[in-house]
Amino acid sequence: MKSQFYKFILFVLFLFLQTAYAQKVVTIDQCIEWAVSQSSENIQKNLNDQLLKVKLNDVSSHLFPTLELNGQIGYQSDQPHLPASFGLDPLSNDYYGISLDFSQVLYDGNQFIYNRQFEKLKNQNEIIQIDLSINQLKARIITIYLNLLIVDKQIQLVETVEKTLADQIERFKKLLNEGVVYGNTIAQFELEQLKIQQQKGELQQVQLSLKQSLSILTGQNFSDVQFTLPELTATNSDLESKRLEFTIFQNSIAGLDFQRKLSISNSLPKLSLFATGGYGRPAYNIFSNNFEWYYNIGLKFNVPIISWAKTAGIGDIIQLQKKLIESKQSDFTKFNQIAIQEKMNEIIKIENLIVLDQQIVDKYRDLTQSYQLQLENGTITVYDFIKQQNDELQSRINKEVHTMQLIKAKYELKALKGIL
Q1: Rounded CA gap, 282 and 96, in Å?
Q2: Are the beta carbons of 127 and 45 closer than 8 angstroms?
Q3: Contact 19, 199 (CB under 8 A)
Q4: Mean pLDDT throughout 62-86?
Q5: Is the pTM of the predicted complex or chain greater than 0.85?
């Protein structure tokens, strides 16, 4: 029983350690998600949705019925007079009244429909502008993340060289004790070791700075994490793009159409219902000196007569503005297609470089091994070996840099195609 219990404890401990290790792995998609979730743009989106609801209510507010309480009291210098033969008492010069006035728009020329649709379009464009800012944030996260991967790989390569130098120093110290080599040989290795340590320290500072920037943008702690290499699927080689700017162009043209419809609606008939009820003196019978109740109800009909010319002028202006936007959209499409083609060519170029990089690294590795044997046999100097080792290190760094440049170029291509 005890052995089974201990096995169970070990199994739970293993799962815990495995989970803890898994939690240290960070992907570029996670960093992007964290940054977007706590960005001000994300808050702006929520506020924009609330603002749209308020604006939609505002442009429709004239459709709601209105009810007003009105009152008046006053004195006037004279009143209408009728001959005494009519048998009516003289009218009083003072007057009093209180009333409730009701009105309800029945038809506004479809203004509220076009206004609501126009506000929705403007709100959509504002949301797209926020999304464009979010895309800029994503691009910044991608740049920082890939730079971190490059620096991490450089540190790993430098540490490999550092270990190789340490092994060489230990080996030649033994040869020095045996009287086979001179002390300056070890001194040269130690000097190179100090340079490597200096280079490593600089890289670690760059690494710390990049982690701090990423931490500020994402709100996460990256003091002890492992950053994974992104895996991107192949992108189509066509020039088609779904960038948000195209939606802005389309919405701007649609917005002009709604403005034209709004200008036309200003020339359409308007119909409203009105009603008034009150109490006062005089009422509608102006020849009565008594306080009386009164009311009236009816329809109000309004038809603009001389605004058609203005409407036609606005229509001409809108047509010109639409042509201007369509021209800008055409230019943007062409420039974006050029950028896509250039980026695809850049990707092909980097892929070819990486193929050659691997061949160069293999050659340098073989040469370094050969130089190692020659150094031990005394046929070359320590300087020759160190130079060869540094050349191999630089070739490996170039390969890693080109790999990150390829990943970044693919992300930039996705941005140009509007699928970032």
Answers
A1: 7
A2: yes
A3: no
A4: 81
A5: no
